[in-house]
Every structure is written in structure tokens, then in C-alpha cells.
UniProtKB/TrEMBL annotation:
InterPro entries: AcylCoA_DH/oxidase_NM_dom_sf. SUPFAM superfamilies: Acyl-CoA dehydrogenase NM domain-like (SSF56645). It comes from Sphaeroforma arctica JP610. The lineage of its organism: Eukaryota, Ichthyosporea, Ichthyophonida, Sphaeroforma. One of its GO terms (molecular function) is oxidoreductase activity, acting on the CH-CH group of donors. It comes from the Eukaryota. This is Uncharacterized protein.
Length: 180
């Protein structure tokens, strides 16, 4: 048995403790999860809702192991984003869902998808959720409905990884179009 225990103290709010246990059957290349135990969470009213969300989420990412190039991987992520199963604001509003999604994904062979997923849900939308003003935050709903993918840009020298500096990445402001 593979147990996922989730106890989530969260800055600014205390999330209800969630404990979920899953049986991991290795009868195929992709692990299958079976719900065994459930304790209340803030996002799911009952065990049935949690089971449905888990099954729907795993269905939405079932192509991850075979998405072997950037185009396929991006399409799987767009499909997941459009489902709304994991909202861009779940890092703040439903952290147990946010962390459960990460844990389930970590078991199915992420490859390049893992980087895309964490950039999309952690860095891109996490930064917006944490820093956006009231006129910017609603844009996340529009972006999610369209299945658009975001990015994360570090503009200061030696901020984060140096790969952007190695390849000579720059962000130049175009005053005519008002974009970088």
C-alpha cells in the first residue's frame, strides 16, 4: 500500500487535515489508484466527490506517459487546464487538491510534462495569485477557459537558474505595442 498523507498548514489560513490512502496496483505501465480511506477536506463534501475528482483527474492526465515530445506534452497540459479540475487558484483556495494533484502526477512518469505542469500551476499562476491586483486576478479564469499556457520569466541577473543567461535571453520593452 502506498499512503499519501496530507497535513497542510497553510500561511494565512489553516486547511482542514486531509488523509488519503491509495492502493497502488502495478498491473500496467501506468499506476492505477484505488481510494481506500478518506477524511474530510475543504474541497470535497464527501468521499464520492473525492473519488470522482481523483478519477477525473487521472483520466485527464492518462496520456502523460506517452506524451514524448514538447508538442504532445503541451497538448496534454492544455487539456488538463481546460477541464478546470485543478483551478489556477487552488494553490490558495484548495491546497489539498493542489498538493494531491502533484502527488498523483509524480507517480506516472512525468518527463517534460512535470516541468510544464509546475511552471503552469506553481510559477506562472502562483505568481499571479500571490502578486496580482483585483483587475488582474480575474484574467486567470479567462486564461484557464481557453487552455492557454503561461510562462515564468526571471529578469534579474542571477535570479534563479542561469540557463536564461547562458542562452542570452533578454526581455525588451516595445513601447509601440506596450509588450515585451
Amino acid at each position: 500500500m502506498f499512503v499519501l498523507a496530507n497535513r497542510l498548514p497553510f500561511v494565512g489560513r489553516v486547511a482542514t487535515k486531509a488523509a488519503c490512502a491509495y492502493s497502488l496496483r502495478s498491473t500496467s505501465a501506468v499506476p492505477q489508484f484505488t481510494q481506500l480511506k478518506y477524511k474530510s477536506t475543504t474541497s470535497f463534501a464527501n468521499e464520492g466527490e473525492l473519488n470522482k475528482w481523483t478519477n477525473d483527474f487521472l483520466k485527464a492526465v492518462e496520456d502523460v506517459p506517452t506524451a514524448t515530445d514538447p508538442y504532445q506534452s503541451s497538448n496534454v497540459l492544455r487539456k488538463l487546464v481546460k477541464t478546470g479540475l485543478l483551478r489556477f487558484t487552488d494553490m490558495r483556495d484548495a491546497p489539498e487538491k493542489f498538493f494531491m494533484a502533484h502527488r498523483m502526477l509524480a507517480t506516472i512518469g512525468l518527463g517534460g510534462f512535470g516541468i510544464r505542469f509546475t511552471v503552469q500551476f506553481n510559477l506562472f499562476t502562483g505568481s499571479i495569485v500571490g502578486l496580482a491586483g483585483p483587475e488582474q486576478l480575474p484574467m486567470l479564469d479567462q486564461i484557464q477557459k481557453k487552455g492557454q499556457l503561461g510562462c515564468f520569466l526571471l529578469t534579474e541577473n542571477q535570479a534563479g537558474v542561469l540557463s536564461g543567461l547562458i542562452v542570452g535571453t533578454t526581455a525588451d520593452w516595445d513601447s509601440k505595442t506596450q509588450v515585451y
